[in-house]
# Entry
Amino acid sequence: MSRIAIITSGYFPVPDSKGGAVEHLVTLLLEGAERSDSEISFEVFSCWDKEALLRANEFRNTNFTFIQTPSIVKLVDKSVYRF
# Structure
C-alpha cells in the first residue's frame, strides 16, 4: 500500500468545510480514493475546524492531523492582509 502526505496551506481546512478551491480539490481526491478502494492511503495535515473534524470521520483510507492556528498568528495574518 502506498502512502501520500498532503500538507495544506493552513488557511482553510480539509475536508472542505469552509470552502477554498484547493481544499475542495483535495477533498475530491480523497473521496475518489475512498470510492475506488484504492491501494493508496493518505495522511492529511490541516488546520483545525469543528465541522472538518466531524467530516474526517467519514474517511477510512485517510488519516487526518488537525493543527489549531494560534490566535496571534491569525491576528498577524489579518493585519498583514489589511495593510
About this structure: The chain is about 40% helix and 25% strand.
